[in-house]
Amino acid sequence: RWVCLREGNGRPPFFYLHGDFHGGGVSCLEIARHLDAAQPFYTIAPPGADDDAMPLTIEGMAAAYLAGLRAVQP
Fold this sequence. Notes:
Shape: globular
């Protein structure tokens, strides 16, 4: 599940994949603050963080990330 923290103004989006299961990716807020205000910024919860089924392989995890990324940036 991708979360848009900043929509920006047409620049290519910055995608941040965090592994923070407990803090919900709070670190991405600090990173976003250091980027230009016009920079679109998206983050995604790690697989399994939203009670979704955890992919059984690294390839499955990559496919899930890629599908979500392509939904935002074809």
